[in-house]
Amino acid sequence: HAMSVLATSVPPTFDLGLLLINNPNPLDPASTRGPELEPYLAAVARENAQSLLSEIWQRLPAERVEDAVVAPLPPPSTPLPREKPPPKPKPPSRWEEFARLKSIRRNKKEQAVWDEATGEWRPRWGYGRADPSKEWLLEVPASADPNEDQFGRLKKEKKERVAKNELQRLKNISRNMRLGGTLPALSAGGGGATSSSKELKRALVVAKRSDASVGQFSAKVGGEKVGHLQGRRRHFLPNTGSLTAERGIQEQVLKELAARRTDPLNTERAVNRLQQQREQSGDAANAVNGRRRPQKKKTAGKVSTEGGKSRRQNARDSKSRKYKKAAASGRANQKMKSLMKSKTLGKRK
Amino acid sequence: MASNSVIKPKTQAGKRALARREEKVIENTKSCLLIRGGNTSEAIGSCLKDLYSLKKPHALMLKRRNPILPFEEISFVEKMSRKYDCSLFAFASHSKKRPNNLVLGRLFNYQLLDMIEFGVEGYQPLCTFPVAKVPVGTKPCLSFQGEEFDSDPTLMAIKNLLLDMFQGPRVEKIRLQGIEHLIQFSYCDGQILVRSYRILLKSSGSKIPRVELFEMGPRFGLRLRRHKVATPEQFKQARRQPKVATIKKIKNIVPDDGLGNRLGRVHVGRQELDKLQTRKVKALKRPREDFNAADGKKIKKRRLSDNKKQKNKG
């Protein structure tokens, strides 16, 4: 026997279920350079194969099947992932439940049935069966209408039976879905998780309120119960209506415009801003590359103070502050009143 | 079950095809989908074809070129995997930035589980080796050489993927003379060297045969580029096995002790003997002091006639 090519300091481990040998010994770095690589690898492989086959021959019991010697493989010990999730147990259908309760067992039927008419054994189903719908002669029963089409009647009855069976099958599927299952794959290419009716309803609600008019103008889906509009944000006054109200609004706007001229600059804010900017530029000077970040230049259209906000922004701020104050005081009063009136505490819309 | 779907298959072939795709306790052998990218070099194209040969019949080669980028957008691969019912894939492409690129990956439930991108180096095709090839569908022996396959987390993931890719069909029994193929993966200088050999069993002095190897090809080295490995949670979910019904062992009862007796041990709880409900016996009714007088003698039993005598006396 040839000398061991590898330094077998660590013995190899096996997973016979996968015909796998794990040899944790490193390759000899000297042998892996140049033209010696392939013969070296071949020698290493040969040793590994020999160890693996010895393991197989020793560990696994050999059996004889016809003219071949086989060995049963153990289940693999290396964890490998599955292809698909394991199948969920199918809930019993209505009939199966009933049969279980009444302990009705399936009787295994014979494949061949004695056919009186032809006087021979015929298969119960499939090719060559005694199909009543293929009869050339049908007796009219005494109780039936003599003008009735007996062949048509059989056909109709069969159609009804098939339709009933299909209905029961679909009912079973829908029952399973309702009880928490998922809709089974509709086709080979389709499938995937489809929602229950609850989830779909929820999705519809969310989708509807996700537009600007919070679903006010969205088409109503059949059977949908539309509640009040949640989260309505923008309220627009009607275009037509009281002229005096509209006049009042316009006058208010003009008043505010006039009032702005008196206080174009919010000095407090301007000073704070300037200080902030100076601090930031100071940081930039201490930066790694020592380059100052260029100041953002404002567009020519806007009139702005140095380091301060634009006039419009100031106005907006003051307006919002004023309105907020007024609103807050108004709201506070209202809240006190309502709190004293009602029993519920907490947020109110 | 195919009958569980809303749409019933119209033909027996359709029914069988659906039954093949549905979730099972014991799964089918994983099929590999081989995809050519927008641009392939001769080497990588040939490498993909060799991979197809190795993995036949559990492989499917897409004919057309598919200019996709698996690491950017995996949806194409997932869609194809669902269409063709394959849970392994190999994507070959060639670009200046990534020459001879091979992405090996696998899916769980038609969704990406993990994928590894390799650069193929030192490739020699299957046809250049004059050795006779193994029959299609042979289960190969796998050999992993190198300590990194057990220690480095990325390489452990790669090993798992390569095992899944090359393990072949899962069998319960193997014909010992049919062990003909060995694939060796060795880790060396940042490369995984892949070599494929044909095994010849020669008789040796002992029962265990002597192994002789002939390099069959293909031969290539895989250099790790990018990787997207499954999180432990994803892997755990993919590993979930179906519950196999086990025979419940009844404790404490020996069904047959060999003589046809059924034995068991009855465990009676703690009993308070003086509070036991027994048959009432008059003799036990008498209090205990009657039996032992102060002087230790037994008190004589008194009879009615004694009482009468006493009365008469007194």
From TrEMBL, chain A:
Annotated Basic residues bias: 290-300, 338-349
GO terms for biological process, alphabetical: ribosome biogenesis
Cellular-component GO terms for this entry: nucleus
Keyword annotations of the record: Nucleus, Ribosome biogenesis
Region span, Disordered: 70-94, 273-349
Compartments, as annotated in UniProt: Nucleus
UniProt keyword Nucleus, yes or no: yes
Function: Involved in ribosomal large subunit assembly.
Family the UniProt entry places it in: Belongs to the RRS1 family.
Protein name: Ribosome biogenesis regulatory protein
Species of provenance: Macrostomum lignano
Automatic annotation (TrEMBL), chain B:
Stored PROSITE patterns: BRIX
Keyword set includes GTP-binding: no
Cell compartment(s), UniProt: Nucleus, Nucleolus
GO molecular function: rRNA binding
Alphabetically ordered keywords of this record: Nucleus
Pfam families: Brix
A GO BP entry: ribosomal large subunit assembly
InterPro entries in the record: Brix, Rpf2
Highest taxon in the source lineage: Eukaryota
Cellular component per GO, a single term: nucleolus
Similarity-based family: Belongs to the RPF2 family.
Protein name, UniProt field: Ribosome production factor 2 homolog
Organism: Macrostomum lignano
